[in-house]
């Protein structure tokens, strides 16, 4: 029997790079199209929608779930419609500001009610359902690490909101690049560090003893 296992981390379990890059490309296309077309919101919106369609088609060919692709395309459509409706290019980024605000509140509340979202997500990935909540050390560790994710959303809001209020579409485009995958990668690394530091030295880790027994087959 083989018990060799690759070291697990939040980055390997949750991934996130592909989704983060996909989320970055339409806003960047909007900003570039808007700038090159003499600040035309229509051109920027068209560029964002075109890139969104191309990304969706590529992901479908790669086996992505149609629902996930549709949600991504719908989000871009809503952003484009808001900017076209208001006539302010910076409003293309308004839905992203709102989703970060909702995420911040959701993650913070989940910690307070002792259902930290990080535990919910990782538990689902590992097939643990809610068994992780019966481990006090793991519940505490997930709660502490989830605050890192709250900080991620707060940091984005601290940057995005002043730029949006100032009508800085170009700066919002740049911020979208910097604060998507690089920030997600940093969040995964820091929350993983917090998670490990919060667990006792003799703790089995993210996988509970039952999970480890089931994963090792003769």
TrEMBL record:
Lineage: Bacteria, Bacillati, Actinomycetota, Actinomycetes, Micromonosporales
Keywords, comma-separated and alphabetical: Membrane, Transmembrane, Transmembrane helix
TM ranges: 41-61, 68-84, 104-126, 147-165, 171-195
Domain of life of the source: Bacteria
Listed name of the protein: DUF3159 domain-containing protein
InterPro entries: UCP010219
């Amino acid at each position: 029997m083989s018990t060799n296992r690759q070291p697990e981390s939040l980055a390997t379990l949750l991934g996130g790079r592909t989704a983060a890059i996909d989320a970055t490309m339409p806003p960047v296309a909007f900003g570039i199209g808007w700038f090159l077309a003499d600040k035309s919101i229509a051109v920027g919106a068209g560029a964002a929608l075109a890139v969104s369609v191309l990304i969706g088609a590529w992901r479908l060919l790669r086996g992505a779930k149609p629902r996930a692709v549709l949600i991504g395309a719908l989000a871009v459509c809503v952003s484009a419609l808001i900017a076209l409706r208001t006539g302010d290019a910076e409003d293309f980024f308004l839905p992203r500001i709102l989703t970060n605000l909702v995420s911040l509140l959701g993650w913070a509340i989940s910690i307070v009610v002792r259902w930290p979202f990080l535990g919910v997500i990782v538990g689902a990935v590992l097939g643990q359902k809610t068994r992780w909540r019966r481990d006090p050390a793991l519940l505490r560790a997930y709660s502490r690490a989830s605050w890192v994710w709250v900080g991620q959303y707060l940091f984005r809001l601290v940057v995005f909101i002043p730029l949006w209020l100032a009508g800085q579409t170009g700066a919002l485009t740049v911020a979208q690049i910097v604060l998507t995958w690089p920030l997600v990668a940093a969040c995964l690394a820091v929350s993983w560090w917090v998670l490990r530091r919060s667990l006792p030295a003799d703790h089995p880790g993210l996988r509970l003893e039952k999970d480890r027994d089931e994963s090792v087959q003769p």
